[in-house]
Design brief:
Helices cover about 40% and strands about 20% of the residues. It is α+β, with helices and mostly antiparallel strands. The chain has a four-stranded antiparallel β-sheet, sandwiched between helices. β2 and β3 form a beta hairpin. It is globular and about 35 Å long.
Length: about 100
Amino acid sequence: MTDITVRHAVASDRSELERLAILDSAKPPRGAALVAEADSRMLAALPLGSGRPIADPFEPTAEVVALLELRAGQLAATPERRGWSRRALSLLRPRPSHARA
């Protein structure tokens, strides 16, 4: 099992994104993207707007791309959906009684 790191791409990733795109016969993502790395090596990238994922064709990356898509979906969730679990838990917490003795 290899540890996979998923993170936002930064400006210094440009050359690595270009390398990955060349390997995948694709264009590098423009704008915001997520990248997946293992052992300090970029395996896949997913644009956070439009465009298809790019991945190293010499590595098994289907699950890595799925992980990127899962994370992108989490990031795209509206603030209302992200806060749902907190609101639901707050409804279960006991409220102080305002009854007077």
